Amino acid sequence: MIRGIGVDIVDLDRFDRQVLRTPGLVPRLFAAGERGLPTHSLAARFAAKEALIKALGDSAGTSWQEMEVVNDAHGNPGFRLSGVMADVLRARGVDSVHLTMTHDAGVACAFVVLEGAS
């Protein structure tokens, strides 16, 4: 059963300007394993985190670092969830979090589906 869906889109130029203007933004929004990536990849990960929050309906009590975007052995994106975020998902009956991301034509986009038993 689908427990939630979320989508987000990020303007790459605007995101790049924000990162350059606000040096503390990257450490605040991204886990250590995400921080060395190119800006377009960070923008896609930001969109993924926003899409996850939208799928949940809120982000109360959670931290951006609790939503780390990782790739599996085949390069497919997914989340490594921890802390309050992992607890919230379990409490809401979410068993699986599906993620897809893309960046092209000046934008990054992410789509999240939350799944759980009925």
CATH architecture: Alpha-Beta Complex
- CATH class category name: Alpha Beta
At the fourth level of CATH, the homologous superfamily is 4'-phosphopantetheinyl transferase domain
Could you tell me the CATH topology label. Ribosomal Protein L22, Chain A
Q: Distance N terminus to C terminus?
A: 5 Å
- For the biggest β-sheet, the strand order reads 1-5-4
Percent range for β-strand residues = 25-35%
Alpha carbon gyration radius: 14 Å
- How many distinct domains? 1
Estimate the global geometry from the Cα principal axes.
globular
- Percent of residues in helices comes to 25-40%
GO biological process, one term: fatty acid biosynthetic process
Main location: cytoplasm
Subcellular location: Cytoplasm
Organism: Cryobacterium zhongshanensis
